[in-house]
Amino acid sequence: MTCEHSGTGFWKNRKVFVTGCTGLLGSHLSESLVVLGAEVTGLIRDQIPRNYLSMSNTIQRMNVVNGDVEDYDLIERILNEYEIQTIFHLAAQTIVGTANRNPLSTFSTNINGTWNILEAARRNTNITEILIASSDKAYGSSVNLPYNEDTPLRGSHPYDVSKSCADLLAQSYFATYQLPVAITRCGNLFGAGDLNFNRLIPGTIRSIYNNISPEIRSDGKSTRDYIYVKDAVNAYTALAANLSTSDSIRGQAFNVSYESPMSAIDVVTTILTLTDQSNLKPKILDQATNEIPHQFLNSKKFRTILKWAPDYTFESGMRETLMWYKSFFEDRITNDT
C-alpha cells in the first residue's frame, strides 16, 4: 500500500473489535489485522459455513463472540472484557432490495447498532480509535457529482437513510463528546469471498462460470465507484493507525474510491472480457427500483491527508477476484460429487 503512515507496527498485540467480521470487508480486514499481529475479537450474528473468514482460516486465529450489534449490553461487555482499544464498526444490512422489503430491520441494525457502538465506546476509557463504515449511499441522489465530503447527507430510500443517520450519529459523538471517531464513505466493494450473488459482480461471475448470460437488474446505465477489498482494507488500517494522533482525521469523514465511475453494463462487459466470455451477452432487466442512478466520489481529501494511493486498479483487482471464484466453484463441485 502506498501510504505515508501505514501503521504496520501499530497493530502488534493491539486489541481490536470488528463488527460485521463475516462480511466482505470485515473478513478481509480481520485477516489483515491478524497477520499484522493484532488480537482481533469479532462479533458474529449468524453462523454461515461458507464465508471468507472461515475459508481463510482467520476465524481460528481470533476471538469470536456470537450475538447482535443491536444488543447494547453485549457490546459493552465485549469492550470491557476483551479490553478493546480499536473498533471497526462494519456490521450493517447492506442490500438495497432487502432494505426496501423490510426497512425496520435495516434501520434497527444500521442505526441502533451504530449508536450502541458509539455509546458503549463513550463509556469505555480504553477506546482510542473508532472507525464507522458509512457509504457513498449516505449522500443520496445529487446532480452535483462527484460527491465531496461536505456534500449534504440526504438519503431518500431506507438503506440510504440508514447510512445517512449512522454517519450523522458518529459526527455527533465527536462534536459532543470528542469521541475519537472517523468515518469512511467507500465506493462499491468487490473481492474474494463475496457470496451474496444478488450483487452485480458476484452474480455476474457465477453466471459466467455456469455459461449463462449475466443479468443486470437496472437499465445498465447506472454508474458507481468501485474499490477492490484489499485496497479498502489498507485504507481502513492506515486511517485507524493515524486516528488517535492526527487532528486532521478525528471527527472527519473520508471518501475512498478509485474515482473512476463505471456503468453496470461496463462492469459486466469488463468481466466478460477478462474471462474470455464476450459471447455471453448480458440481459438488461430494467427492474431496479429505489436506487440512485449515478454516484461517484472525490477522494482527494483522503489521498492528500493520508498520502494514500491504491495498489490496484479495477481490472487488476478483478483478475485476482476471478481467480478466487474459479477455485471456489471448482472446489464446490468437487465436494458436492
Please state the second-level CATH architecture of one domain.
3-Layer(aba) Sandwich
CATH topology of one domain: Rossmann fold
Encode the helix/strand succession as letters: EHEHEHEHHEHEEHEEEHEEHEHH
By CATH reckoning, the class of one domain would read Alpha Beta
The number of strands is: 13
The neighbouring-strand order within the major sheet is 3-2-1-4-5-6-11
Quote the average pLDDT: 93
- Largest sheet geometry: 7 strands, parallel
Please state the CA-atom Rg, rounded to the nearest Å. 19 Å
N- and C-termini, Cα separation? 41 Å
Query: What is the fourth-level CATH superfamily of one domain?
Result: NAD(P)-binding Rossmann-like Domain
What is the helix content? 40-55%
Key words describing this protein structure:
single chain, 337 residues, Rossmann fold, 13 strands, globular
Polypeptide structure, described:
The protein is α/β, with parallel strands linked by helices and 337 residues long. The chain has a domain at 9-191 and 227-259 and 293-311: Rossmann fold, CATH 3.40.50. It has helices spanning 24-35, 52-55, 72-81, 96-101, 103-122, 158-177, 200-209, 229-243, 264-274, 300-306, 314-336, and strands spanning 15-19, 39-44, 63-66, 86-89, 129-133, 181-186, 188-190, 215-216, 223-224, 226-228, 253-256, 262-263, 283-284. The strands form four sheets. A seven-stranded parallel beta sheet has the order 3-2-1-4-5-6-11, sandwiched between helices. The longest helix has 23 residues, at 314-336.
